Amino acid sequence: MSPKANEPPAEMAPYDVHWFRSTIFQVIVVGGVFFCAPGMYNALSSLGAGGLATPWYANATAAAGYVFMAVMCIIGGVVVSKIGVRLALLISSTGDIIYAGSLYLNSKNGTQWFLLFGSIVSGATDGLMYSVEGPIITAYPEPSRRGRMLGLWVFMRNAAPVIGGAIIFGLNAKLDSSGAVSLQTYIAIIGIMCAGPFIALLLSQPEKVQRKDGVKIAFRRMDWSRTLHEFYKVISSRNILLLCPLFFTSWFYNSYIGTLQTQFYNIRTRALCALVVPWGDIAGGFAIGYFLDHATLSVKQRARWSWVFLMALNLGLWVWAAVITRELDSHGPGIDWTTGSIFGKTFSLFIMFEFATMATQTLLYWIISHMSSDFIVLSYMTGILRGVECAGQAVAYGIKSSNTTDWLSIGLNIGLIVLSLPFAWAVVRKIGVEEFKEIDFGSDSVDEKTDAGVKVKEKDPEDVSVSDTKST
């Protein structure tokens, strides 16, 4: 165990950085692209079934999209290592435009085949985007600002559903019937999405990024044999495998919530959800981000206390969901914000689910940031995180692609969370107690792992960052 395991990292003299090359600007660029692409997709998702009249076919196409997203997330790190971060971000910003267009055509003309195609393209490009943004938000920020940078990223990615929700709410506030949202809703969202590729061009290459601590970020170039070897070592590492059950279940709830909204809420109340519910994401990301940067607590305390609280909160919300589902069984569709207590109960549940889920995902990224200091390795790790999450969503949406009982979703979610707890704890208990060993790529020396681009030394786990990387 490191003797410095629970001590805060030593302060370094700040370096002057150009704002265009700063770490915060890179996070803002990534957040801006997410705002225009997956963020606006999430705004439509907040309506339930992408704003369509019925959830079943939309859920089936979403399941197909998440399958492709899962595959691309997992292999996306390899793609990023070959084509670079800027081109990968540019390509990944285009797929959601096609998906939003498919929603428009399906709502207008009933073109279902294009909805399936759009969902698959969107899933693949979003998977590539998650492989780009993951290592940027975990490897770029200075260690003392890592939690707050994660909070900023959460805000940027969820500002889109809020602003998109405001547009949706403004266009649909007078529609107090059930069914699909107005066609103008899709046109407005598509217009915003089209700005994404232009924002992606503002991203700096890793070697040009300037950090306040003067550390250079290495982006290693390798041949295919070395790339696949390192990729295999990462995906088969024990700590990543132990976290996979929690990855799988962390967004499993989404299909349940979206289906409830479509089945029981009228159009204008679904539009209100698109406007207000994402604030739960923003609150969850900032709250956990600031707690994880709380220097008066040890790293071990921050990791354990946040994990225990969030796991208890997630389980408690599913108990709450079970109570509300029983009430909804005796309540018909068409719930409006004027309906009464049943609206207040379900609406607050939706917000709290978003709070708990985004806080949990932010914690998972923070945990991964302690497991390696190498940009490429972090790309693989965060891609696996999002890939396994998407696999869980594919299963969840597959279950809700037909009119199955809500009790199946509730039982599966509770069971998966309970199953994941002992495996995740085996990793969480190491944070702040012992240093994670850098993944050994075989031919590296003991003191300096030149092939991995990582210099290993005795240090605070909180300070495991790209400060130890160097170009090969």
Automatic annotation (TrEMBL):
<dbReference type="InterPro" id="IPR051617">
    <property type="entry name" value="UNC-93-like_regulator"/>
</dbReference>
<feature type="transmembrane region" description="Helical">
    <location>
        <begin position="346"/>
        <end position="368"/>
    </location>
</feature>
<feature type="transmembrane region" description="Helical">
    <location>
        <begin position="183"/>
        <end position="203"/>
    </location>
</feature>
<feature type="compositionally biased region" description="Basic and acidic residues">
    <location>
        <begin position="444"/>
        <end position="462"/>
    </location>
</feature>
<dbReference type="InterPro" id="IPR036259">
    <property type="entry name" value="MFS_trans_sf"/>
</dbReference>
<feature type="transmembrane region" description="Helical">
    <location>
        <begin position="111"/>
        <end position="130"/>
    </location>
</feature>
<feature type="transmembrane region" description="Helical">
    <location>
        <begin position="24"/>
        <end position="44"/>
    </location>
</feature>
<dbReference type="InterPro" id="IPR011701">
    <property type="entry name" value="MFS"/>
</dbReference>
<keyword id="KW-1133">Transmembrane helix</keyword>
<dbReference type="GO" id="GO:0016020">
    <property type="term" value="C:membrane"/>
</dbReference>
<feature type="transmembrane region" description="Helical">
    <location>
        <begin position="87"/>
        <end position="105"/>
    </location>
</feature>
<dbReference type="Pfam" id="PF07690">
    <property type="entry name" value="MFS_1"/>
</dbReference>
<protein>
    <recommendedName>
        <fullName>MFS general substrate transporter</fullName>
    </recommendedName>
</protein>
<dbReference type="GO" id="GO:0022857">
    <property type="term" value="F:transmembrane transporter activity"/>
</dbReference>
<feature type="transmembrane region" description="Helical">
    <location>
        <begin position="56"/>
        <end position="80"/>
    </location>
</feature>
<feature type="region of interest" description="Disordered">
    <location>
        <begin position="444"/>
        <end position="472"/>
    </location>
</feature>
<feature type="transmembrane region" description="Helical">
    <location>
        <begin position="150"/>
        <end position="171"/>
    </location>
</feature>
<keyword id="KW-0812">Transmembrane</keyword>
<feature type="transmembrane region" description="Helical">
    <location>
        <begin position="375"/>
        <end position="395"/>
    </location>
</feature>
<feature type="transmembrane region" description="Helical">
    <location>
        <begin position="304"/>
        <end position="326"/>
    </location>
</feature>
<feature type="transmembrane region" description="Helical">
    <location>
        <begin position="407"/>
        <end position="428"/>
    </location>
</feature>
<feature type="transmembrane region" description="Helical">
    <location>
        <begin position="240"/>
        <end position="257"/>
    </location>
</feature>
<feature type="transmembrane region" description="Helical">
    <location>
        <begin position="269"/>
        <end position="292"/>
    </location>
</feature>
<keyword id="KW-0472">Membrane</keyword>
